[in-house]
Design brief:
Elements: E1 2-5, H1 10-19, E2 26-29, H2 46-61, E3 65-74, E4 80-81, H3 95-105, E5 115-125, E6 131-142, E7 158-160, E8 165-166, H4 172-178, H5 180-193
Parallel strand pairs: 1-2, 1-3
Antiparallel strand pairs: 3-4, 3-5, 5-6, 6-7, 7-8
Helix pairs in contact: 4-5
Length: about 200
């Protein structure tokens, strides 16, 4: 079974392939499927944006399509950057700059109020247009300084108190076991396993 994963982000694609390993499906990127246009994310929620991406590409390519929308919510900043996580401070702004700015914005805020979460909504759209969406989170706090070389994006500033490290300091297998995307993909995996092959 061939499924398009609607992302141009190689890091996400790698994580998804690791998590779906062993399943009787082939995950291909939208570029591999011949789709080169970014879908405009005009939704107001992670779920709406995931659906917009998956439905546009499933319609164009005629293949079952998965899309995720994910991001970081920081409670003391009114859940910013939220659905604008990848576009925060501009899409071309490097993540070390974004991370430094978020740390600056929560400077002086006690750990008890630096609560944050990674959110991941994954939508699956079949060629007939029917869809299913799942959502998962990973809870933590904003770190006082970036740490770790693993992961990508906001991982170096997302501190996991129960692990005593940031998500960028976790080995990939350990991160996938507890991450928002890992949890959402395992929920989606249950849906995909019931699909006719």
């Amino acid at each position: 079974m061939k499924i398009i994963f609607a992302t141009g982000n190689e890091n996400k694609l790698r994580e998804i392939r690791q998590i779906t390993e062993g399943m009787d499906i082939e995950i291909v990127s939208m570029r591999d499927a011949g789709y080169y246009t970014d879908v405009e994310e005009t939704g107001k929620t992670f779920e709406e944006n995931a659906y917009l991406k998956a439905s546009a590409i499933a319609k164009k390519c005629g293949l079952p399509t998965l899309a995720d929308d994910s991001g970081l919510e920081i409670d003391c900043l009114g859940k910013e950057p939220g659905i604008y996580s990848s576009r925060y401070m501009g899409e071309d702004t490097p993540y070390p700059v974004k991370n430094a700015e978020l740390i600056r914005r929560v400077e002086g805020v006690p750990d008890s109020e630096r609560t944050a979460r990674f959110v991941c909504a994954i939508c699956y759209v079949r060629p007939d247009g029917s869809s299913e969406t799942v959502r998962a989170t990973m809870e933590g706090i904003v770190a006082h300084e970036p740490a770790g070389e693993n992961g990508f994006g906001y991982d170096p500033i997302f501190y996991l108190p129960d692990r005593g490290c940031t998500s960028a300091e976790l080995p990939p297998e350990e991160k996938n076991a507890i991450s928002h995307r890992g949890k959402a993909l395992r929920m989606m995996k249950e849906i995909l396993e019931k699909e006719p092959k």
